[in-house]
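Annex B. Sample input.
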Amino acid sequence: MTTQDSAGRVAVVTGGASGLGAAMAHEYARAGMRVAVLDIDEVRARDVAESLRGLGVDAVAIPVDTGDAASIDRAAAGVDARFGSCNLLCANVGVQQFGSIDTLTDDDWTWVLTVNVLGTVRTVGAFLPLLRRSDGWRQIAITASSGVFVPAIRLGAYTTSKSALVGYGETLRLELADDGVGVTLVFPAGMMTRHLESSAAARPESLGESILRNEDLEAMLASSPETAGDIAAPEDAVRGLLPQLLANEPYVITHGGYRDQLTERRARVDAAFDRMEQS
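Annex B, continued. Sample output.
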């Protein structure tokens, strides 16, 4: 598969109204794909879809709340009604809650895990029948985070949720291989987006306000100085993404200068094996 082969195929992007999701949607549209932009922010989703149509492709905005299973099912039905197929599903939605682990509330954990983990699981479950019915290349892309490899303090709930997605995605890849549906885990680092703003806006009122303290943000940046400068524009982060999805690569690193830290981590794991073998 090449990017030319992707023309006319259907991409679905959750969290497609801004940030990385919007950049993904534009990247796929430039390759000639038809795109469904799914987001809780329907106004911004419509703006993105209009921009995609300006690139000469069919695009639609569909509202979805990935914290609500019924909303996800309705979105999948909407994509089926509009396009009748799905070749690429990007489960990209993620919300973020800062705070030290001992100050995060049960509501904080419930919200982050429900949206980031269960939301992804439910999104894949809702769209999998449509993926299986579609012809040719089919791929699921799950947005994880560089924080899985290089954790920082004050992001415990977010990092836990993204780590869970790695286990889910790797197992999903094994289980869908015989169906011809590929699975790729995407690991972005920091980006210049409105992620914090959109996360706060998406939190249900019943769970209270999403609070961001400057001290938490400063502590997080100080705890991981190597990655604090790994900030990219979403448009730069998605360059080269589609060819890797077409090739069914298991992992995509969008950007970030943390390779040395990851190498050190692997060395510590190897050392643990050595100690086990020597005991």
